[in-house]
Design a protein that fits this description.
The protein is an all-alpha fold and about 90 residues long. The chain has a domain at about 10-65. The protein is about 80% helix and about 0% strand.
């Protein structure tokens, strides 16, 4: 639903600016923002639009989780192979 004079729904503007909106908040406050936006999105009757909104809402957390897990995976691989090379060196 558009307000008079708006080019896009307000929820789109909020989602586009979510990093700036939540950037200075504490984790609990960020959780409340996401919970509130989730409630707003859940009221959308157009299923396809609602799915796009959810994808936009979760893009930043998903990106953060991906970055965290990929960084930790590469750290694990580095430590694992470093340990293996030390074990091989100590056997010789």
């Amino acid at each position: 639903m558009l307000n008079p004079g708006d080019e896009q729904p307000m929820i789109n503007e909020i989602l586009a600016n979510i990093p700036a909106i939540t950037g200075d908040l504490e984790p609990q406050q960020v959780a409340y923002v996401y919970q509130s936006l989730g409630l707003i999105i859940s009221a959308q009757s157009d299923v396809a639009f609602r799915e796009r909104l959810v994808a936009n809402l979760m893009a930043l957390p998903n990106q953060s989780v991906f970055h965290f897990t990929s960084h930790n995976y590469f750290l694990f691989v580095y430590i694992f192979f470093k340990k293996k090379s030390v074990e091989r060196a100590s056997k010789n």
